[in-house]
Amino acid sequence: MFTGIVECIGTITSLTTNPTTGTNLTISTPAFLLSDAHLGDSISINGTCLTITTFTLSPPQFTVGVSPETLRRTNLGRLEQNSNVNLERAVSANTRMGGHFVQGHVDTVATIVGVEEDGEARILRFRPRDSGVLRFVVEKGYVTIDGASLTVTRVEDGGEGAGGDKEGEEGEGKGWWEVMLIAYTQEKVVTAGKGVGDEVNVEVDMVGKYVEKSVRGYLEGLDGKAKGGGGVLEKMVERIIERKMNAR
Fold first, then answer.
1. CA 70 to CA 105: how far, in whole Å?
2. For a disulfide at 29, which of 10, 54, 105, 187, Cβ 3.0-4.6 Å?
3. What is the distance of C-alpha 175 from the center of its chain?
4. CA distances (Å), 52 to each of 30, 66, 208, in order?
């Protein structure tokens, strides 16, 4: 579990790739990040929860293994030597929850389709590979971009006329959302250095997933109990009317 508050930026010092077993990444980092490290610890790399398999304190660096499945589902397969990545250790009992609950399980990859400067802030617009995640993205809600907890400033679910108007954006009728990076955040995350066409890892707020599953289960339960035809909404209206009539 993570908070989405990026602790530091690391650099890929080496990577070895095997088409069958995946990729091993060795990442150099500020020394403090490994001050309490243990083999087997979880660490977030660009929002992907991975396991430390080896590490050294001098020089401060660690290695993680990335499976072929993870490479397919994230942007980690695009990393090269000297690429920078966002890093965050797993939460501890005394961690301040400055962001939101982040699992490190990437839901999809999104492409940056627009970049706009607003004073010292930078507005980024993202279009997800899997448009299904848009139902969990709400204005002023949380979204995790490359491991950083950010607030959604604007969202368009898609449909006719939903195309954007920012420079470099292509296509119409597809959903997107925007976040704003203040000057301080731009210095602390790798996403600020990305441009139109670059990809980011996305994890939506898990609370929305649980709510959707609970509501669906409840409505399906009502539908299963309903007799004599009619949809769930119709049955709910009938029950309300029946209560009102009985109360007279």
1. 10
2. 10
3. 16
4. 16, 11, 30
SS3 call for 233: helix
Return d(Cα 235, Cα 241) in angstroms, integer. 10
φ, ψ at 191 (rounded to 5°): -60, -30
Q: What is the pLDDT of residue 162?
A: 43
Q: Which tokens hold the place of 149?
A: 């907890």
Q: How far is CA 242 from CA 59, 81, 155, 218, in A?
A: 73, 68, 40, 20
In three-state secondary structure terms, 133 is helix
Residues 123 and 141: their CA atoms lie apart, in Å, by 16
Q: What is the mean pLDDT of residues 211-218?
A: 79
Mean pLDDT of 18-33: 90
| Average of per-residue pLDDT across 201-224 | 80
- Higher per-residue confidence, 105 vs 236: 105
138 burial (CB, 10 Å; 0-12 / 13-18 / 19+) is middle
Element (H, E) at 151: strand 148-156
Q: How far apart are the first and last CA of the chain?
A: 53
* pLDDT given at position 93: 78
pLDDT in tens, 165-189: 443 344 334 899 999 999 999 999 9
Distance CA 224, CA 130 (A): 30
Least confident segment among 75-89, 146-160, 171-185, 196-210? 171-185
Please give the Cα distance from 9 to 191 (Å, whole number).
11
